């Protein structure tokens, strides 16, 4: 809702541009999307065995109007991507939910060397496919849905100045960043952030380096990607961040007279030091355009084997005693927070994807899997996209989550997720 004023700015600037004999509708694109999803409960999960904490929606539907607009005159431009949507679900409390998301709005000036830009946007940068640890504003992407969702989440306010050369670029950036994970109570507000990024083109390679201040925490990252002929590409990313933006498991003994009970919490860690995050990967494209991608992920802020053992014991204790008259509410809060942070609990992961190109430009079939290398739990998915004529695109996907009772993906509240969408372009 807070970005409605941007449409007023857009209208005012567009009106003033009319003197230049611009056709203001040339840059307008619209499409209508109908999305549906069905979830099947995970049986026997230790985190919420009775499925009373996190209700699973049997089905949900959403209608989305995608609006894009661009206007160019002289050295100035305006760009807009927005999506009002209406959701209907059988999950209690979210029936008839209307959302207005503006994922991108910018007013830009492009000079001979410097580009100035301001508005709201999402920062999707990096060489990796499943994660971008060199990007201080990156989000975890578990499957194809998350990969697509990063482009349409609500944008963050920003202002940037970029210096462009023939084979280099330097960008200064301010943003009031909010990671989507900060919607839960473990995080407070937005991160007032500043960043500088430099990128260089070196024959068949691209190298970037980033430094950022996330509120009061320093971040440094770098990425590199190189191509070898027309078929092989290798890439890597690394990021190091001051501790304080990761979550730490804390256990506190509570003395209740004749007995002492344990209270568990997830808190922002206050330890000094640095966390390192790393991604190494590559992809190979065969002559029939089949593409195979493999990536290894290292999350330095994830739990070690010893810490994970303590965490598992805490989850088991909290799950068993969530109806305790004294600490039951606190136990349920801990379990809910654990639910909201599933994704990179541990330190070592492997991601794979195989994409088969079809007859159309966008007709693809993708198979993917993400493995937790510690507990052997995993997610696996399949995604199919069809082009139908010039105006229709359909998309169907299935994601499954599998693991033992006390494994990471065994804690996901649903074991199977089916999604479908159809989009019509006006």
Q: Care to describe what's here?
A:
This protein has 426 residues and is mostly beta strands. It has a single domain, classed as Porin (Beta Barrel). 11% of the residues lie in helices and 52% in strands. The protein is built from four helices and 20 strands. The protein has helices at 4-16, 144-149, 305-320, 328-340, and strands at 28-41, 59-73, 76-89, 97-110, 114-121, 156-164, 168-177, 191-202, 205-214, 217-228, 232-242, 247-255, 260-268, 274-285, 291-299, 348-357, 364-372, 378-388, 392-402, 414-425. The protein has an 18-stranded antiparallel beta barrel. The longest helix has 16 residues, at 305-320. The two termini are 25 Å apart. Mean pLDDT is 81; it is low at 1-20 and 182-188.
Key traits:
globular, 18-stranded antiparallel β-barrel, mainly beta, 426 residues, two-stranded antiparallel sheet
Helices and strands, with pairings:
Elements: H1 4-16, E1 28-41, E2 59-73, E3 76-89, E4 97-110, E5 114-121, H2 144-149, E6 156-164, E7 168-177, E8 191-202, E9 205-214, E10 217-228, E11 232-242, E12 247-255, E13 260-268, E14 274-285, E15 291-299, H3 305-320, H4 328-340, E16 348-357, E17 364-372, E18 378-388, E19 392-402, E20 414-425
